[in-house]
Design a protein that fits this description.
homodimer, about 350 residues, Isopropylmalate Dehydrogenase, 2 domains, 11-stranded mixed β-sheet, 12 helices, about 45% helix, cytoplasm (chains A, B), EC 2.3.1.274 (chains A, B), transferase (chains A, B), phosphate:acyl-[acyl carrier protein] acyltransferase activity (chains A, B), acyltransferase (chains A, B)
């Protein structure tokens, strides 16, 4: 499989992206297209001389003369910078020269590039960014987590159809339980948006279990949690922050009771596993569902491991031909209601 | 101080409410009015015979012939059941026979009763339910957490003014940092509602520090986090759920590595402190800001300790005369912009 990587995007790019590409090439048979300013990328790859036989790895540099920074206006930057690493990545997929593209840079710009070059799947109103959230049994898919901050009920319906399909195909969950994020379980609880979306989701050909509350996401009550991108983004970042804070608090408390320090060597194994469980770099990236082609968007603060996992997430998504499945499901729903 | 307690409301009422009243009466000089069906409450109090000298405690039963269940329609129930424990509680405050009322029952009905009998403070558009959320340094106030699911920008502005005042007076934080919950720090990030609210909050006479993200709430970046009641409710419940899930995961991980069990006796002290830190029953209840008089709304699943703390939260709020402060601040803002 050929994966195009926006090597210039991300808080720690190009160090993190080049490292991620090397990890991915070493651990898989995928071909990685490192897209960015050639001179910089060659220099970065040279740093690995002696450690790895870089030349033998399945990595190819694709030159792009510009790049988009984290604080640029997404749509404007994509329109103006036709030769940015992101735009080149998206075109590689649109032209069939890559199977997927991955970016851990400006996420708004990555979405814009996907929309601009890959186009929306016919019938899809808005693409949704869906990500995994750790829960008691493993993970839950949350969509949307930031692509659409103001939503119509119909968007939430489609997020439900798309994310359910993604959860079934890529995460391998049979008949995934889809819940609508709200403020109470009863169908009468919610705001204007969710009350209207509830009625639509009930009629969709998915396993809709009704409203779920904030606690049900980590609690394992649903496999897919649907919400607008504003709420999804708050949920995602609160989850990250709370996990960090809890670990800090544990450390702080342990310091206040010196006697507990004696137990630390024994705790090491448990803490290592727990970290892994709640470590977002393990999941790598979030697919943008609803575009023709695969686009994976990762956390700006991704390290090499996270970039590698985003590349693998891209390959996994390609394997299951999600776009075709979404096209079919949306068409089926639209035909049913017309 | 005289606190009226809705003794019939709550998942474990009247056992939890009567226990909470006994705890509060024992630990303070407040007079507790136990409002509810007299026969039931007398029976409940009798259970404490032998353990406590109930008669010597400053507790008085106030009879109410009806009560409102958790699943009744809030406004309708309050309008129809004039002699419900909740309505009687609210009237006791309105008539000056109690200084505050506390309920851990149907929270929508408690708000309706407060609005119906206590009335809104002049100039206040919507009252806000504000609660404390544990963070790395202690706590952060979040408002609104469920009173208003669909908001106008002006509501969020007033939530900021009211919650800032509450944080300053009751929590004792000087010049509290007020943040608007959004999806990025930049003022250009947000949805339609927050973008408009940002402009208003900037002009208010509070220490507005701009947008904050989900992670900043537990991270300790703000003393007051402002959002609509839908988001606030999701934040609150996600926080509860995630904390529970983390503790469960720790236990699960420890079980998988039997060697770590040896360390458990040492960990006990740290875990006890940590639990207390994140235990919502420590804070008891959330004040409904913006009504004439004090109304404290607690968690439906409150136990006796949580009810006691809700009673104390009511007394604390009365002491600082929050309603007068809010009246003045809202008037001042309205005069400035007119």
């Amino acid at each position: 499989m050929i994966i195009a990587l926006d090597a210039m995007g991300g808080d720690f790019a190009p160090a993190s992206t080049v490292e991620g590409a090397i990890f991915a090439a070493k651990e898989s048979k995928h071909k990685i297209l490192l897209v960015g300013i050639e001179k910089i990328l060659v220099g970065e790859l040279l740093k690995y001389r002696g450690r790895y036989d870089v030349k033998s790895l399945n990595i190819e540099i694709v030159n792009a003369t510009e790049f988009i920074t984290m604080d640029e206006h997404p749509a404007k930057a994509v329109r103006q910078k036709k030769d940015s690493s992101l735009s080149v990545c998206a075109r590689l997929v649109a032209d069939g020269k890559a199977d997927a593209f991955v970016s851990v840079g400006n996420s708004g710009a990555a979405m814009s590039a996907a929309l601009f070059y890959l186009k929306r799947i016919e019938g899809v109103l808005r693409p949704a960014l869906s990500t995994v959230f750790p829960n008691i049994d493993g993970h839950c898919i949350v969509a949307d987590v930031g692509a659409n901050v103001d939503c119509a009920p119909e968007y939430l319906l489609q997020f439900g159809i798309m994310a359910s399909l993604f959860c079934e195909k890529v995460a391998g969950v049979e008949n995934p339980r889809v819940g609508l994020v709200s403020i109470g379980e009863e169908s009468t609880k919610g705001n204007e948006l969710t009350l209207a979306a509830f009625e639509l989701l009930e009629k969709a050909d998915i396993n809709f279990i009704g409203n779920v509350e904030g606690r049900d996401i980590p609690g394992g009550k649903v496999d897919v949690a649907i919400c607008d991108g504003f709420i999804g983004n708050v949920i995602l970042k609160l989850g990250e922050g709370l996990t960090e804070t809890m670990l800090k608090l544990v450390r702080k408390e342990l310091k206040q009771h010196p006697i507990t320090w004696a137990s630390l060597p024994f705790l090491w194994l448990a803490i290592r596993d727990l970290r892994k469980r709640v470590d977002y770099s393990e999941f790598g990236g979030a697919p943008l569902l609803g575009v023709e082609g695969v686009c994976i968007i990762g956390h700006g603060s991704s390290n090499g491991k996270a970039v590698k996992n985003a590349i693998f997430a891209g390959a996994e998504t390609v394997k299951h031909n999600i776009a075709a499945g979404i096209r079919e499901a949306i068409l089926k729903y639209n035909n049913k209601v017309v």
